[in-house]
Amino acid sequence: MRLTRLLVPIAIAAVATVLTPAAANAQDYPPTGPTVTVSDSTVVVGDTVEVEGTGFAPGETISITVEYGPIAMGVPRGARSFVPPTRKDDASSVRADKDGDFRTKVTLTQVGRAVITATGETSKRSGSASVLVLSSRSELPTTGTDGGSYLRVAVAGAAALVAGLALVAVARRRRRTESPS
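Given the sequence above, the corresponding structure tokens read:
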């Protein structure tokens, strides 16, 4: 009786293991979607960016759309706030090559955050990339220096050093003349 109690669960487990289908050619989860990249992440209105995509069906027509939205500044991630409606433009369509890749150019016509989305018409697979569109070049942040400020700092430092040495020399002379020898 004890042996039967032990062998029955083992036999059931063995049969279940043999009869359970195994995953053949399992794919990655989650499945990887197409990749879309842009040549520039920040541009000025009217500029053209090059859009490249991979991972689409070979030879399929790919619809390129641009959706313009506001530039959210100072709003914490996940915070609810009023966001004005976006504007969507159908930019163009392009055909993927034999590897499922494409390359095209898109002109950005609105200020804000532009999300460029590529969608395969037969596979329905899509990918997107984001571009910051500014109204003028002057809105771009200034980083680094133009070189002239280094010279100004060096001249100011040298002048401070000379002034300090002159004050030390004057103080030493006063001590010599005031102190009885």
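Strands lie at 35-38, 42-44, 48-54, 61-69, 87-95, 102-107, 112-120, 126-134. Try to locate this feature in the token string yourself.
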